[in-house]
Amino acid sequence: MSSRSLGADAAAFVRLVERAGDRARTALPLSVREGAGALALATVGAALLVRLVVEAPVDGAPVVGLRRPAAAAALAGTAVAALGLATVARRDAGAFGLVLVAVFAGAAAADDAAVVPATGALLLGAAAVVAPALERRPNDLAAPAVAALALVALVASALAFLGIEPPSLRPLGSRAWLLALAALGGVALERRDGAAVALGLVAAAGVAWAGAAAPFAFGAAALIAGGVVGAPGVAVALAVGGAVAGAVAFARAGERARSLGAGVLLATGVPVGIAAGLAAVVGLALVRGPGGERS
Question: How many C-alpha atoms does 101 have within 13 Å on its Cβ side?
């Protein structure tokens, strides 16, 4: 299957999912964004939990066989979530980017020959999704920082995934992604949400304690479950704390879809590979907020 044919399929899907969304929006108890976020977080979170149990210093043998099914479910869940988000996006590059990433991710899962074009589609779609968030707005410095750092992480991780300078780009991608997650904590600081900041600090302290108490298991979990390479444990702790603080701040403000998006970004880990990249794009689209939606 050629990349040109897949691109045409993506354009057709944009029109298809928009029509489907128009029919579904009035029938769903949750908003489409909230439903997409819940689906993505449930499937990506389940895959993360399986990976963590396998790497934990306990007998993870009973769940080893679930790794591939959980990964497949996460790919399917995030693909459906991306298409769902595209139904409520304006007819702009962001909607096309979501569908493009979902279509090519599915193609790459079905045929290894599509991995390279799927990687290009991932980066193009990610850029289209995060572009609006890069615009600096008053009292909103966290969103541009998260978007810029996440895009750097996606580019570096994608190139490393293709075998281009992995020793340099894998650590760069890891550090940029962890910084992006930590920057989510800026949402709580900007809103002066003391409860969110406190919960983020507690989460960060808990992760730091776990790293100090069991450094070998912690390092293995960060690598296998989170895809972290060449980043110190304190960076992982700050990333978890920032994501938790951001998620809580969004939730306390009634922005449930954005809160779910922060959870998706945290559960995804460093976006190495097509499936993780798709999950990252979905999380970024959710965190971006409803400003790009059609009425």
Answer: 38
pLDDT digits (tens, 9 = 90+) for 128-171: 998 887 776 666 778 889 999 999 999 999 999 999 999 999 99
For residue 89, give the 3-state DSSP assignment: strand
Domain boundaries, the chain: 3-292
pLDDT for residue 59 is more than 70: no
The identity of residue 27, as a single letter, is A
d(CA 168, CA 42) in angstroms, rounded, equals: 32
CB half-sphere exposure, 44, CA atoms < 13 A? 32
For the chain, helix, strand, coil in percent to 5 are 80, 0, 20
Mean pLDDT of the chain, nearest integer: 86
- The closest of 88, 96, 107 to 36, measured between CA atoms, is 88
With tokens 């969004």, the residue in question is 250
User: What is the radius of gyration, based on Cα positions, of the chain?
Assistant: 18
Interatomic CA distance for residues 238 and 204, integer angstroms: 6
Residue type, 271: P
35, two tokens: 């439903």
Element holding 43 (H helix, E strand): helix 32-55
Residue recorded with tokens 């979990």: 221
In contact, 233 and 208? CB cutoff 8 Å = yes
* Residue 196 in this model has a pLDDT that exceeds 90: yes
> How many residues belong to the chain?
295
| 292, 93 contact by CB (below 8 A) | no
Exposed, middle or buried by CB within 10 Å (0-12, 13-18, 19+), for 23? exposed
Q: What does the CA dihedral 94, 100, 106, 110 come to, rounded to 10 degrees? A: -160
Check residues 263 and 2 and name the one with the higher pLDDT.
263
- Coil, helix or strand for 293? strand
The tokens describing 254, both together, are 């009634």
